[in-house]
């Protein structure tokens, strides 16, 4: 059996990949938010992840651990990102960090536990249910998929499949009205537009997949 460990170096590389991805996708994410929100999602995440990148310049993986890494990311996003997504993504990373229990490396099942803690934090903050046209529509199906397969050996395949599930969840927001967030006011006019948070959440998850093995 091949044991995949998710260590501090892996997670630091994932966060750097996230920061780079947000720069590339900034205008696209903002354009999604322009259609049904206030047009700042990509810009806000870019401001947040630029601060994250700055924090990581001083980050010593030998002296730190996964919890302190994710806490730094969460605090940056909480402090710098405006709109609804700052508190949501900030809580997501903070709670993933708490669940890592100051370890330098975690198993796949422990990673899934971290992810579950992050998604639960988003749910607790945003109070969104499945089908409300929010990032939960992407995160929750992936969380369930990962939980069902957390003891599997082929971690890379499970992660790839969880990503597919997330993308499908994001696509499902195209054809529903919003029950949370700014798009709520649009009613039926929100139909035909993807939720920006659902889209950014699978793109962030893709960074975990990309940096595997
Ligand atoms: Mg916005």
From TrEMBL:
InterPro entries xref list: DhaK_L_YcgS (IPR012737), DhaL_dom (IPR004007), DhaL_dom_sf (IPR036117), Dihydroxyacetone_Kinase (IPR050861)
Pathway given in the UniProt record: Polyol metabolism; glycerol degradation
Annotated signal sequence range: none
Protein EC: 2.7.1.121
Keyword Transferase: yes
Domain DhaL, chain residue ranges per copy: 9-210
Annotated GO CC locations: cytosol
A Pfam entry, by short name: Dak2
Alphabetized UniProt keyword annotations: Glycerol metabolism, Kinase, Transferase
Reactions catalysed, as given in the entry: dihydroxyacetone + phosphoenolpyruvate = dihydroxyacetone phosphate + pyruvate
Domain of life (superkingdom): Bacteria
Record bears the keyword Kinase: yes
GO biological process terms held by the UniProt record: glycerol catabolic process
MF annotations from Gene Ontology: glycerone kinase activity; phosphoenolpyruvate-glycerone phosphotransferase activity
Function field: ADP-binding subunit of the dihydroxyacetone kinase, which is responsible for the phosphoenolpyruvate (PEP)-dependent phosphorylation of dihydroxyacetone. DhaL-ADP is converted to DhaL-ATP via a phosphoryl group transfer from DhaM and transmits it to dihydroxyacetone binds to DhaK.
Subunit structure: Homodimer. The dihydroxyacetone kinase complex is composed of a homodimer of DhaM, a homodimer of DhaK and the subunit DhaL.
Protein name: phosphoenolpyruvate--glycerone phosphotransferase
Species whose genome carries this gene: Streptococcus cuniculi
